[in-house]
Each structure stands twice: as structure tokens, then as C-alpha cells.
Design a protein that fits this description.
It is built from 6 helices and 2 strands; from the N terminus they run ααααββαα. It is mainly alpha-helical. A two-stranded antiparallel ribbon has the order 1-2. α1 packs parallel to α5 and α3 runs antiparallel to α5. It is globular, with a radius of gyration of 16 Å. The model has no long low-confidence stretch (mean pLDDT 97).
């Protein structure tokens, strides 16, 4: 999850530097969400949704258009990341096998162990970060690498970000 946060923030910082106008500009209908802001809101919203499901809640998905600015998104995301990390830090080995019962947005019921769902969240975001990287490339040029090896080198001090 430290890598997940780092990669999200790395691309988010590039987007902030591009400005609100660019972040809200539609890049194309072929993306999961047509703007950078909506794409980041979706990643945040998915993380929020899954944490609430893991806690036994039945949240409704957050609309990607519901957060009007990058500043508001960053404020919410910062607070959420602390909550998410506290949940993860409190987990035990036994918790990983606990079954999570939830319903998708269409109301279909599912049951999956917590362990694989914990892996799903950063994996899901990787898909959307690749879309974000492509969107950034289209509007301003290639963004910085968000690969796992780069994260390890940056966080160990072997590479400057």
C-alpha cells in the first residue's frame, strides 16, 4: 500500500502541476473516465468503497464527477489514506482468510476472502494509473515512471525521484 500511495501521488502531482483546467478537460471517450480528475476520483472512490466493504458496510459507489477539484480530492484522499493504513496495520494473519460478503453496484452478492481483496485494490489502481499516464502523455508529455522497481530505488535512496 505504500507503493500504491506513492504511485498515485506521483501521477497526481504531475496532474496538479498541469492545472485544474487540464485535469477537467475531456481527453477521450476511450478511457474508463474521460478526464484526469475523474480518473483519480475513481481510484480514490474504489479504495474508499473497498475499505467500507471490508468493514462490513454496504456503500454505494462514489460518482467520479462528485469531487469538483483536485484540491478537494487531495484533502479527502489524505484523510482517507490514514484511515486505510490504520485498518491495514491492525490486520492479523487470521484476518486475511476472513470472508467478505458484499454486493456490487448492480446488487449482485459476492463472497471473497479479505486477503485477495487487499491485493485487488492496488492492482485495480494500476490499470487506471496506466490510463492516467497515457492521458498525461497526450496532454503534456510522458510522466515519470511509477513502476515497482523505481519505487524501491526511490524509497531506498538509490534514485532521486
Amino acid at each position: 500500500y505504500a507503493y500504491h500511495r506513492w504511485a498515485n501521488r506521483r501521477l497526481f502531482g504531475v496532474t496538479v502541476a498541469l492545472g485544474e483546467e487540464v485535469a477537467g478537460r475531456e481527453v477521450g471517450p476511450h478511457f474508463s473516465y474521460p478526464t484526469l480528475r475523474r480518473m483519480f476520483t475513481h481510484i480514490y472512490g474504489a479504495d474508499w468503497l473497498w475499505l467500507n466493504r471490508w468493514r462490513g458496510g454496504a456503500p454505494t459507489p462514489l460518482a467520479p464527477s462528485s469531487i469538483p477539484s483536485l484540491a478537494e480530492l487531495r484533502e479527502r484522499w489524505d484523510a482517507f489514506e490514514k484511515e486505510q493504513q490504520a485498518f491495514i496495520d491492525a490486520l492479523t494473519e487470521a484476518d486475511l482468510g476472513r470472508m467478505v460478503d458484499y454486493k456490487n453496484a448492480d446488487g449482485k452478492a459476492y463472497r471473497v476472502a479479505l486477503g485477495p481483496l487487499l491485493h485487488h485494490v492496488p492492482n485495480h489502481a494500476t490499470h487506471h494509473r496506466s490510463e492516467i499516464a497515457t492521458m498525461i502523455t497526450m496532454v503534456s508529455g510522458s510522466p515519470p515512471d511509477t513502476g515497482r522497481a523505481t519505487y524501491e530505488l526511490v524509497t531506498s535512496g538509490q534514485l532521486t525521484s
